[in-house]
Design goal:
229 residues, eight-stranded antiparallel β-sheet, two-stranded antiparallel ribbon, 6 helices, 27% helix, globular, disordered N terminus
């Protein structure tokens, strides 16, 4: 009776309420290599609202993917990359004016392939793990077996002093899809790529210099916001 009552209540919900609950906001990055659509998580509202505001004011238009590491991730969002000369070291964030409080939701949200997470300073300078106001990375990573996941737990404990455990469903996702589990519980993941993962891979395979900057600049030509069910 309790289950039947719950189902009846759900069925009687106004359609407008149900639609509102299902809506997500996405941002689209129009890059030199193709389009990437990122669905933003409602579970991380500060990060969601911050990047929406930045996109709406054109902040990302013309910026570079300034840090690209094969089989790991691609990173963008440094404001000075827009007019950076060839070979300039980017990503130090010295012109950023604020940080975003951490919204880490592990193990519900984790660093699977295609996840989008905020960059940040290290724990020594930033023990609260606050996020960069604008820089973010898109995860590629690799696939992990069970034994490899055990090694990751040990690595995190050794490097951070924190004991975390990966639930079986998370382990299964890293085995099936890949990702970067050694970053879990340390950085805020606030979205995921829902279209254009092939574009992410293309950027990730780009030839880079000694500072992991692509030798041939890869721009975000423009970014825009869309709302989808």
């Amino acid at each position: 009776m309790r289950i039947l009552g719950l189902l009846t209540w759900v069925l009687l919900l106004p359609l407008s309420v149900m639609a509102q609950e299902e809506q997500h906001t996405s941002i689209v990055l129009v890059t030199d290599s193709g389009n990437v659509t990122i669905m933003l998580y409602n579970e991380t509202p500060r990060h969601r609202d911050n990047i929406i505001a930045l996109v709406n004011r054109g902040f990302y238009d013309g910026l570079l993917f300034h840090r690209v590491i094969e089989d790991f991730m691609i990173q963008t969002g440094d404001s000075i990359s827009r007019n950076a000369p060839e070979g300039q070291l980017l990503g130090d964030g010295k012109y950023e004016t604020y940080k975003i409080p951490a919204e880490i939701r592990f193990p519900q949200i984790f660093h699977k392939r295609g996840s989008v997470a905020a960059a940040r300073e290290g724990d020594k300078e930033n023990p609260q793990r606050e996020s960069s106001m604008c820089q973010f990375y898109i995860v590629w990573g690799k696939r992990y077996s069970g034994n490899m996941m055990d090694d990751v737990e040990e690595r995190i404990a050794r490097n951070t002093g924190e004991l975390i455990s990966f639930p079986q469903e998370v382990r299964d996702a890293y085995f099936q899809y890949g990702g970067t589990p050694h970053l879990d519980n340390q950085y805020t993941v606030f979205g995921e790529v829902v279209e254009g993962l092939d574009v992410v891979e293309k950027i990730m395979r780009a030839k880079t210099d000694e500072n992991d900057r692509p030798v041939t600049d890869i721009h975000i030509q423009r970014a825009y916001v869309k709302t989808t069910p």
